[in-house]
Design a protein that fits this description.
The structure is a single chain. With 41 residues, the chain is mostly helical. Helix content is 24%, strand content 0%. The protein is extended.
């Protein structure tokens, strides 16, 4: 069974650095998808 994490937070709250460091310390398979927010149309 696999896991999926949703990491959210305000801009510049070090999410990307935390994810990168977590991936570096993880020995299994992992991936990263960046989702964009809603358009203000």
């Amino acid at each position: 069974m696999s896991e999926a994490w949703l990491i959210s937070g305000s801009p510049r709250c070090v999410k990307t650095n935390w994810i990168l460091n977590t991936f570096k310390n993880y020995s299994g398979n992992c991936g990263y998808i960046s989702l964009e927010g809603y358009s203000e149309i």
